[in-house]
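In this section we walk through a basic example: taking a raw amino acid sequence and producing a predicted 3D structure, encoded as C-alpha cells. The instruction is simple. Fold the sequence below.
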Amino acid sequence: MRIPICLLAIVSLTGLAYAEDPDDQATATPPAAGTATAAPATPAPAPPKYGGFVFSGLIDGYVNENTNHPCLTSSTCLPGNAIGTYNQLQNFDILNGTPELSMIKFTLDKSDSVFGFHFDVGTGETMRLIHSSDPAALDHKALRYFEQMYVILKPKNTHGTEIDFGTFVTSAGAEVIESNANWNYSRSILFAWAIPYYHFGLKVTTPVNKVLTLGFQVVNPWNETDGGHRFTNIGLTSAVVKGIYTWNVNYYVGPNNPVAVGLPSSGIRNLFDTTLLVAPNDKTSFYLNGDYGRNNDPFGGHATWGGVAAAGRYQVTKAIAVAGRGEYFKDAQGYSTGVKQNLGEFTVTGEYKLSDMFIVRAEGRHDISSVQFFNKGAKPNSAYGETTLTLGVMAVFGPYK
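The resulting C-alpha cell sequence is shown next.
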C-alpha cells in the first residue's frame, strides 16, 4: 500500500450512521451536527435510543431505458422481444427496459441501555446481488434475505462505546445500499467497483470527544459471512464532525483471495477510503469521495484501482430537490471491472416527494470508458459510452415503535 499504515491507523470510522446503519436514514439532506457517518444521506427522525421495538421498511422499484439497447442476440433486438441484458457498471438498477422490484426490506431494532440487536431482512434484485459472491449465501440460501444482522452491546461507563457482532454494511463509501438514503438513484462507480458491501465480524466504535469518533473492526474477507480466513481482516474507521464539515476516513486490510494450494497466504488486499461532506445550509450539500485499492496476488504481482467522485444536492422546495454527481475511476489492471480501462460518469437526478412516505426520482446518467467496453445492440464491447434514463419510486415506512 502506498499510504503508510501508521498514518492510516490514526484515522478511521463513523460510517456508523450512514454506511453502517442505512436504515436510520430516510431522506437525503445534510447530516445533523454530531452525526458520524461515511455517506451523505440524512438520518431519519431517530428511533428511541433505549427500550422498545422499532419497526421500519422500504419498497423500491424502477424502470429504465438504455440508449445502447443492449441485447443478448440479434433476435432479442427485434421489436416486441424482451431486451434481456444488463446496464453495465451499474450494480443494482441493472435490468433494462422493464419495471423491476429493486428491494422490499423490513427493519427491526431493539435496544436498551446495554443490549440490543438490529435486523434488515428483505427480498428483491438488490438483496440477491449484494450476496452474489458470498459462499455462505450460496450454501445457506436464507442468508440472502438478510442485509444486516447483528447484536449490540453498550457497556456502562464507557462514554458511548458500542460493540456490534454479526453482519453489518461497510463503513467505506459515500453512498449506501438503500436508494432513498442517497442523493442519486443509481450508485456511483466507486460504490459498485471500489469497495465491499458488507462484513461479518466484530465492530467497535468509540466517541473520543464531541468532534472525533474512532472505530476498530475484526472481520471476514469482503462480502463473506463465513469466510475461509475467519476474522483475518482489520478495519480502522474515523469521523471528524465539526460545524458544516464531516470528514470520514476508513482503512481495511487483510487476505481476501482464495487460498491457493501450497501457498501460505491468499494475498493481502488494502483499501483506503475517505469522504468529505460539506453542508453550508439546510438546502445545499456537497461531498468529495476518494478510494484507492490494491490487491496482492498470491502468485506474485498486484492490481490497483481507485478514483474520485464529487456530488452536490440542492433542496429547491420542501418537495423538490436536484442532485448531480461526477466521477473518475481507473482500473489499472482490469481487476475490478474485468477490463483495463479509465472510466468517467456523470449523473443528474430530480426528486419529488409526494409525502414523507413516497419519493419519486427521475435520473439521467452517462458512463464513458477509454476503451470499447459497452455493449450496443447485439454487438458486445462495441461502444465507448452508455446512457441510461431511470425512473425510481420508493415508499418509506416508519420508524414505528
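Looking at the output, two observations stand out. Confidence is low (pLDDT under 50) at residues 1-44. The longest strand covers residues 385-400. In the next section we compare this with other chains.
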